[in-house]
Design a protein that fits this description.
By secondary structure, the chain is an alpha/beta fold. The protein has 14 helices and 13 strands. Its cofactor is pyridoxal 5'-phosphate.
């Protein structure tokens, strides 16, 4: 089999550094640590990147994809808006605030970035079926990308997900299997299926394709730096589910520095969780290096991973950069969703409510520097999590007769 992963030359263990040939592997044979793509980057310039397409393939020289990736049928995610959030900044007392709004991706979540990487890996390995365990957004991204790429799709979700996310995954075709259990149980089932003949030639984007899939999150770091004028933000707030997104954004920032594409300036990384599923935040506050699994109970279902694989790495990054990890209640999540919508016109899903809620909490507690340039992530569209909005939020302001007198009496 002839493999073309562009600048990626091997898989490397994040724990012991052992190297392996590129393949559909995700765990080190020596220490069982997670594997990730290792690169031999050539000369990469800002001019080369800026001449690329307005999607993640402008960074193809930094990703495990072939040089002709943009010519293949795919969803072309990325290059989403970095919104200067002056209104929200004034409401919270933050001088320079931006929202990286990934609801603008093809299936309205950041998951399109990572799935695009997995599709290329699946093609390389000759897989015919794209699969995943998902808390919702990934399911839609996988079925859409599979449809576009001409692959079969079979995805697995906890059966109690939001109906909008189930509908989005179903509409693109393929099979959607609801499992009576938590996300962690769904993920464990998928790992077992890889070893079964039924899973032969299946690419599980977040299991056996994970080293490639996870690299898609780096494009958020690249875009934020380029959209800021080729510099790093001083503070960034990132939601934590598995923790992979946070660790890969940090990896992306470090790669840009190493390649001389941005100046090496300090940045602080803050992780955000819902209180109902906050194992990383709990470990951070207790000063622990080990993350104890929990059973999720929160409206932020896209972040409801009770045993986050990258949790210890998140702790390392938060402490190394001088950042932190914080959590917010379900009520604070909904309030933050409304605050973002009413100040910036951005309707975030619950995960966006978590990051904005944590932004508010950290600012009010004095942990966040209000004078520092700050970026907060919104990773999905609020239309997918409408069920959390109740009462006056889903009712008209008033119901009146169609007359001017009735209107005057109301306003």
């Amino acid at each position: 089999m002839s493999l073309d992963f562009g600048p990626a030359v091997a898989l490397s263990c994040r724990e012991c550094g052992a190297r392996y040939p590129l393949g559909p592997s995700f765990a080190c044979q020596e220490c069982f640590g997670p594997l990730e793509a290792a690169y031999d980057f050539g000369d990469v310039s800002r001019a080369e990147i800026e001449s690329g397409p307005a999607n993640i393939w402008r960074y193809r020289s930094l990703l495990p994809v072939p040089a002709d990736v943009a010519s293949k049928p795919n969803m072309n995610p990325g290059w989403t808006k970095l919104v200067k959030a002056g209104n929200l900044g004034r409401a919270l007392g933050i001088k320079s605030l931006y929202v990286k709004d990934d609801s603008g991706n093809p299936t309205h979540s950041f998951k399109d970035r990572v799935v695009a990487m997995a599709v290329e890996a699946a093609r390389n390995f000759g897989f015919h079926t794209l699969s995943c365990s998902s808390t919702g957004n990934l399911a839609g991204a996988v079925t859409a990308a599979a449809a576009r790429a001409g692959l079969d799709a079979c995805v697995f979700i906890p059966a109690n997900l939001e109906k909008a996310k189930i509908a989005m995954a179903r509409v693109f075709g393929g099979r959607l299997i609801g499992i009576d259990g938590t996300y962690d149980e769904v993920n464990r089932f998928c790992s077992e299926l890889i070893g079964d003949p039924m899973g032969d030639k299946w690419g599980f984007v977040n299991v056996n394709l994970r080293p490639y899939y996870a690299e898609g999150s780096k494009t958020l770091a690249y875009e934020i730096a380029e959209q800021l004028g080729w510099r790093l933000p001083e503070q960034i707030i990132i939601p934590i589910a598995s923790g992979s997104q946070l660790t890969k954004i940090d990896k992306g920032f470090k790669e840009l520095v190493r390649l001389g594409l941005v100046e090496d300036t300090p940045y602080k990384v803050f992780g955000a969780q819902a209180l109902g599923c906050s194992p990383v935040s709990t470990a951070y506050k207790a000063g622990h290096d080990v993350v104890q699994p929990v059973k999720p109970d929160t409206i932020a279902k896209s972040l409801a991973i009770g045993n986050p694989a990258d949790g210890p790495y998140v702790l390392d990054i938060a402490r190394r950069t001088g950042g932190g990890v914080e959590d917010v209640t379900d009520a604070e999540i909904v309030a933050a969703m409304k605050l973002l919508a009413s100040t910036e016109g951005i309707f975030a899903e619950t995960a966006g409510g978590v990051t904005v809620g944590v932004l508010k909490k950290l600012t009010e507690s004095g942990v966040l520097d209000p004078e520092a340039e700050t970026v907060v992530l919104n990773t999905g569209d609020g239309l997918k999590t409408l069920d959390v909005l109740t009462g006056e939020a889903v009712e008209p302001t008033a119901v009146i007769k169609p007359s001017l007198d009735a209107f005057r009496a109301t306003v």
